[in-house]
């Protein structure tokens, strides 16, 4: 009787999966945090784990670090761009491979004087935290392949600038970089004169963030690159994606022109759109297949 009951339960389970496949293994978004000695603070992160993650416990996965913009946090991509749904869709359609996607927290409301930014600055050594604590922790805690060929980075706005600068200066870490509406450098004021910009308290967090962007100007980095640096930049698959009505479009065009001048291959797309979540949500449908091709070195 016990064997019969067990068989009945097995068949019932199989029937349920056949009739309702959505009740089988599912991907998930997990929210967790890490305490940083560098920042002397807890930093939250979201992580997307594909549906096979809990079933195939010996398998390791490529990883995408997906960066948010100014005023954003680790939850933005999940809540505002439906990261899980888009990724599930692209994987199910065969457009993207199963991967782990991490969205760290480098931000908050900077106008309320909360630290914000991907670069090291006085009182906020975020880049040091990212490379000495965060990335090693993620790739030790989760089943990540953990080499250049299977690691990519992407981001929007401030995170697009962070993406570009991180890939420029840590070219041995990433096979692909996808920058959306990127803060490649501080935007020029109307008339081209930044000197007319409103004066800021030089000690404010916004002023420190602006200075860090100026110091990590992605366009000048390319223009100033020597031959060895240019060779390293060519080892990365680059994609820049910006809306035709985005206030950062000109800076993205200048980055594209700098890459062309230095003969560094880059895919550049200007689509209908502005600096908003509708644009970045749609960009995911290009980003995920792009990094998948880079993971597998598909031209």
Polypeptide structure, described:
With 299 residues, this protein is α/β, with parallel strands linked by helices. It has one domain (27-184, 196-295): Alpha/Beta hydrolase fold, catalytic domain (Rossmann fold), CATH 3.40.50. It contains ten helices and ten strands. The chain has helices spanning 2-19, 76-80, 83-92, 126-141, 158-169, 205-215, 218-223, 227-233, 249-261, 277-295; strands at residues 28-36, 41-49, 63-67, 100-104, 120-121, 124-125, 151-156, 176-180, 237-243, 267-271. The strands form two sheets. It has an eight-stranded mixed beta sheet, with helices on both faces. Strand 5 (120-121) and strand 6 (124-125) form a beta hairpin. Helix 3 packs across helix 10 (277-295). Mean pLDDT is 90; it is low at 1-20.
Name the features.
single chain, alpha/beta, eight-stranded mixed beta sheet, disordered N terminus, 299 residues
Question: What are the SSEs and their pairings?
Answer:
Elements: H1 2-19, E1 28-36, E2 41-49, E3 63-67, H2 76-80, H3 83-92, E4 100-104, E5 120-121, E6 124-125, H4 126-141, E7 151-156, H5 158-169, E8 176-180, H6 205-215, H7 218-223, H8 227-233, E9 237-243, H9 249-261, E10 267-271, H10 277-295
Parallel strand pairs: 3-4, 3-7, 7-8, 8-9, 9-10
Antiparallel strand pairs: 1-2, 2-4, 5-6
Helix pairs in contact: 3-10
């Amino acid at each position: 009787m016990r064997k019969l009951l067990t068989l009945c339960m097995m068949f019932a389970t199989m029937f349920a999966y056949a009739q309702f496949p959505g009740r089988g293994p599912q991907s998930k978004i997990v929210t967790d945090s890490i305490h940083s000695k560098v920042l002397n603070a807890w930093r939250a992160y979201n992580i997307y784990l594909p549906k096979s993650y809990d079933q195939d416990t010996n398998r390791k996965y490529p990883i995408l670090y997906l960066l948010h913009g100014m005023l954003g946090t680790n939850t933005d991509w999940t809540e505002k761009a439906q990261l899980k749904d888009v990724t599930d869709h692209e994987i199910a359609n065969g457009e993207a491979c199963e991967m782990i996607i991490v969205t760290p927290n480098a931000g908050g409301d900077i106008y309320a004087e909360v630290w914000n930014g991907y670069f090291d600055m006085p009182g906020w050594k975020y880049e040091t935290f990212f490379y000495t604590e965060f990335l090693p922790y993620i790739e030790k805690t989760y089943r990540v392949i953990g080499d250049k060929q299977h690691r990519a980075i992407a981001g929007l706005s401030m995170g697009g600038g962070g993406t570009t600068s991180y890939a420029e200066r840590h070219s041995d870490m990433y096979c692909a970089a996808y920058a959306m509406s990127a803060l490649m450098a501080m935007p020029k004021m109307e008339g081209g004169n930044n000197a007319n910009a409103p004066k800021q308290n030089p000690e404010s967090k916004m002023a420190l963030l602006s200075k860090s962007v100026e110091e990590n100007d992605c366009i000048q980095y390319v223009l100033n690159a020597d031959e060895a640096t240019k060779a390293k930049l060519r080892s990365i698959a680059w994609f820049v994606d910006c809306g035709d009505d985005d206030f950062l479009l000109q800076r993205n065009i200048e980055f594209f022109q700098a890459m062309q001048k230095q003969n560094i291959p880059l895919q550049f797309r200007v689509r209908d759109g502005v600096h908003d979540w509708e644009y970045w949500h749609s960009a995911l449908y290009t980003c995920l297949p792009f990094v998948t091709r880079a993971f597998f070195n598909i031209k």
